[in-house]
């Protein structure tokens, strides 16, 4: 699949900005992380992406490699981020084949729509294991290689649900709050050794798996939701990729322990409260009646982007 460069990268960045660098990405076959990786590879990096599906991950890796002549992109499918030995093996292969690891993007995640009363302990644990344990395992597996880099950077994909609280997202809110905390701990403990550790928090990003899964498909609901965003539009994968390029570049070498929210100021208006509902569903009525949008892609099982 050919993706126009304007879809995933602004024209302001210098060619070869990341020449000789290697990025290791969990959830790298997903709709956001694949575009982050694509942008970095276009600007000179080589990459190793991890995904749940072997076929999809290898296909996405081959496609990303086409953005730059001579690019090397490894796709490792079937890697379970909940198992640290899987990540250790992937990190080892990345370092052996590409020469090291300079940047890490921890993007593996799981989510589904449900009120607390409909979330089982196992369902809650599944999201925590994928998001939080998976992020911790990613840190543990890649840090020995990052510490050998002259520009060690690690990014985490977070969310704004827990900033104000979001109905139907208690499990994910807890997971992302923990990821934000891990980010800060890494900044404090590894900052003195040269590592920068930051979060990117996307808002509703148009055309992504997450938006398809969490948002109503009704036109009226979509239009009402976008009016709640102060910047007046949905986010794009390019918005997230550009933020990624900035945080991994030397321009952000003194940015550490920070969460960069890329959502058009939506969280300031608690815009995430529209997750899982339609335009005619008002708070708290939809909760009291047990309503969830009937126009969701799915509502029950967590989907992991490993």
Please tell me about this protein's structure.
- It contains 11 helices and 7 strands.
- The two termini are 21 Å apart.
- It is an alpha/beta fold.
- α2 links the parallel β1 and β2.
- α2 packs across α10, α4 packs parallel to α5 and α5 runs parallel beside α7.
- The mean pLDDT is 91.
- One of its GO terms (cellular component) is peroxisome.
Topology (elements, then pairings):
Layout: H1 5-8, E1 22-26, H2 33-42, E2 46-51, H3 54-64, E3 73-77, H4 84-98, E4 103-106, H5 121-146, E5 153-157, H6 161-164, H7 170-190, E6 196-202, H8 209-214, H9 219-227, H10 237-248, E7 259-262, H11 285-288
Helix pairs in contact: 2-10, 4-5, 5-7
Low-pLDDT ranges: none
Task: Give a short account of the largest sheet.
Answer: 7 strands, parallel
- Main-sheet strand order equals 3-2-1-4-5-6-7
- Total number of strands: 7
Radius of gyration: 19 Å
First and last CA, distance:
21 Å
Order of helices and strands: HEHEHEHEHEHHEHHHEH
The helix content is 25-40%
What percentage of amino acids are in beta strands?
5-15%
Pairing-aware structural class of the strands and helices?
alpha/beta
Number of helices: 11
Mean pLDDT metric? 91
The gross shape turns out to be: globular
Keyphrases for this structure?
single chain, 306 residues, alpha/beta, 7-stranded parallel β-sheet, 2,4-dienoyl-CoA reductase (NADPH) activity, EC 1.3.1.124, SDR_fam, oxidoreductase, DECR2-like
